[in-house]
Design brief:
By secondary structure, this protein is of the alpha+beta class. The protein has helices at residues 13-17, 23-30, 58-65, 97-101, 118-126, 164-171, 177-186, and strands at 3-11, 35-42, 49-55, 80-92, 104-112, 144-148, 154-161, 187-194, 197-198. It comes from Gymnopilus junonius.
Length: 199
């Protein structure tokens, strides 16, 4: 599987005023050696911009970051507001393209609570317990999960939904709520929905 760079930031005032100022940067990234795909969009719940960059290998992105004029060479700098940029590289265990291709993509940032293990998390999500996929219509599968290369206790999950509202309907069903509680018991997580567009 390719390595996915998940990057996000609060937009600068210039970016808020003119969303098109990011287009040259997206074109640059799309044409960078080893970048297989660029997905971008704003979160629905907060004023945060996300990039979902699919790299052939981690080394391809590292080569870009080693450029003597990085990060200015990317063209992203004028779009970045207060708080700077946040970035993780994720090794997803299943196909992530259906999730980022959906009308609304759930991005779930997960940190394990003390005493909990990666093996336990993956077993609960992918085999039994939380395994929300068994409750989903085919068009919302697969549920994918991956470990970040930067922190073995940090993970990202993703599901594609027809809308954020439909997601909320699904997880409020009585037979699913106990499964969500199992996830809450072992993790600290943040959930956002992003309307991704492939560049």
């Amino acid at each position: 599987m390719p390595i996915v760079e998940i990057t996000w930031w609060a937009p600068s005032k210039a970016f808020e005023a003119d969303k098109s100022i990011i287009n040259p940067a997206l074109d640059f990234l799309k044409n960078t050696d080893g970048c297989n795909a660029v997905y971008s969009g704003f979160a629905e719940e907060e004023n945060t911009y996300f990039l979902f960059l699919v790299w052939e290998t981690l080394q391809h992105h590292q080569k870009l970051m080693a450029h003597p004029e990085y990060p200015q060479v990317t063209g992203l700098v004028p779009t970045i507001g207060e708080g700077g940029i946040k970035m993780y590289h994720v090794d997803f265990i299943r196909d992530f393209i259906p999730a980022v291709s959906a009308p609304s993509t759930e991005i779930l940032e997960i940190a394990l609570k003390e005493g909990r293990s990666k093996e336990e998390l993956f077993r609960i999500i992918t085999e039994n317990g939380v395994n929300i996929e068994k409750f989903l219509p085919a068009e919302h599968r697969p549920v994918t999960l991956g470990t970040t290369l930067e922190d073995s206790n940090k993970f990202f999950g993703s599901i594609g939904w027809k809308s954020a509202a439909f997601h909320q309907e699904v997880v409020q069903q009585p037979h699913i709520l106990p499964e969500i509680e199992k996830l809450k018991e072992m993790t600290i997580y943040k959930l956002l929905h992003v309307n991704f567009v492939k560049r």
